[in-house]
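Sequence design from tokenized structure. All designs in this work follow the same two-part layout: the structure record, then the generated sequence. An example of the structure record is given first.
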């Protein structure tokens, strides 16, 4: 993968995140976990290019996000949809996602990406906060009837890598 300037990035975030999904990965090459996410956003905050990843605290990847300063958001070509589905429906607590999917972990700064990814954001955490259900519109509160509310991880996108 080669590093590009974030200003040269041409993506539709509503498709890349909301439809195609991404893998959020935290930890180091020796010990990490990854999960599929299709909620979040990219933009500018505090004069920095950021991503907002929202993760429920009962997800195994959450533990890795809490302990590590960096994480990656990795995006994949359409032929990897089965991998993303698997990583979103199985927990790393009791499943070896790498073995089961054939993902190829690669060191990416102080985190991990995958050889199959066609784009990866290396992200540095700036802000972590549990969402407040009482501050939510009634139309979205139902999302949390059975599961805990998400925690927001706002992180600076410090590097962008694309497949050559």
């Amino acid at each position: 993968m080669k590093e590009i300037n974030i200003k040269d990035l041409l993506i539709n975030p509503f498709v890349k995140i909301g439809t195609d999904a991404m893998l959020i990965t935290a930890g180091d090459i020796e010990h990490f976990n990854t999960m599929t996410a299709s909620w979040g956003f990219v933009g500018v905050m505090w004069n920095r290019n950021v991503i907002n990843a929202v993760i429920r605290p009962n997800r195994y990847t959450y533990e890795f996000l809490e302990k590590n300063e960096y994480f990656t958001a990795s995006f994949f070509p359409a032929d990897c949809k089965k991998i993303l589905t698997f990583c979103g429906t199985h927990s790393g607590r009791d499943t070896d996602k790498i073995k089961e999917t054939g993902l190829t972990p690669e060191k990416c700064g102080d985190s991990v990406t995958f050889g199959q990814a066609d784009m990866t954001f290396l992200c540095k955490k700036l802000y972590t906060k549990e969402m407040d259900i009482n501050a939510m519109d009634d139309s979205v509160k139902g999302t949390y009837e059975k599961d805990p509310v998400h925690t927001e991880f706002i992180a600076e996108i410090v590097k962008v890598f694309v497949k050559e």
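Residues 82 and 101 are 8 Å apart (CA to CA). We note this feature because it recurs in several other targets discussed in the main text.
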